[in-house]
Design goal:
globular; mainly alpha; 11 helices; two-stranded antiparallel ribbon
Length: about 240
Amino acid sequence: MPPELALFLCTGFVCYLLRLDRQQSPGVSAAVWLPTLWLFSIGTKPLGRWLGSASGDEWGSPWDQYFGIGILCLGVLILARRRFDWCYLLRRQPWLVALLGYMLVSCLWADWPFVCLKRGTRQVLAVVMAAVVVSEPDPPLAVEKILLRFAYFLLPFSLLLIKYYPHLGVEFGRWSGERMWVGVAQQKNGLARVCIIALIFLIWRFIQRGGCAMKQSGRYALIAESSVLVLGLYMLFLPA
């Protein structure tokens, strides 16, 4: 199969999965895509590598910096429009405040304080993304949708890169020359982490459904999730 056709089919499959997801849970707001994109960014290769930058650090290229600043500003804007109560959150999470404060102070004795401070903003970004999820009408459902999209996107596209775009989805050991599947991740352990997170969530979804009868769209969603589950198992246990 030509790589272009495989890319077209994979994109169509993922779009179909997202359509089923929207039919199953129409109440989730579009703002949930913001933490979803953030989760994609930390689970895959840095944006600079996708766009041809030589930098391998998550914040090492201008594209990654623009992306991080952009979603941070959008997250703060969403929270401001929702009148999110930051004081209530900080009172309820004193250990989180202490951890962030310690990380900020530790920049003072780092060898490169400015670089340390710049990379520390990633933790602030994580807090803002979590606050966006908490501000949703149904936070548990929002988390479920984020993890479902995580599985829907990253597993099919990982297999696509491995099979049809090996210059992106396959690497070789520096010393051993061993062929390693990496997919959308930076290295093989990253791909295994993506697969494990997605598989645990999908298995939980199956257990949650139980043996109850499902409507037609629900059966289609079950078949689709089963397909993604098989992809994850294949990449986790049969890398070659």
